[in-house]
Amino acid sequence: xxxxxxxxxxxxxxxxxxxxxxxxxxxxxxxxxxxxxxxxxxxxxxxxxxxxxxxxxxxxxxxxxxxxxxxxxxxxxxxxxxxxxxxxxxxxxxxxxxxxxxxxxxxxxxxxxxxxxxxxxxxxxxxxxxxxxxxxxxxxxxxxx
Length: 145
Known about the structure:
Rossmann fold, Rossmann-like_a/b/a_fold, Nucleotide-binding universal stress protein, UspA family, Universal_stress_UspA, 5 strands, five-stranded parallel beta sheet, UspA
C-alpha cells in the first residue's frame, strides 16, 4: 500500500519509537515498502550555538550521531532489512516535513510524546506540527501512560 515509510528517531529516547518501527516493518514485510529512519540534530545551524563549536567539533558530533543511528538500526532491524538512514540538522518538525517532500514519503509513523499542557503551549509538539504540515499520511502513536 505505502511505497516509502519514514520513522523519525529521537536518539535521546530511541525506545520511544519501538511501536512505530513495528508498524513500519509490517509495511516493509507485507508490501515491500522502503524504510527511512531519520534523526534530526537541533542547534548546530543556530548561529548562537555555532559560535561555541569549531567546524571540526561540529563535523565530529554529526558523525558520532550518524554512528549512533547506524548502531541503533543494527540492533532493532531484522535480518535482511536495510533502512535508509539519515541525519539532518535544524528544527525537527521542519526538517522532517522537508524530508517527506524531498523523498516523496507516503507514510510517516511516529510517537506522540505525552507532555503537559504547559509544555505543549511553550514547546509545541514535533508530531503535531508534522501531522499538520505533511502532505502524506501520518500515523501518530500516543503513549497511554
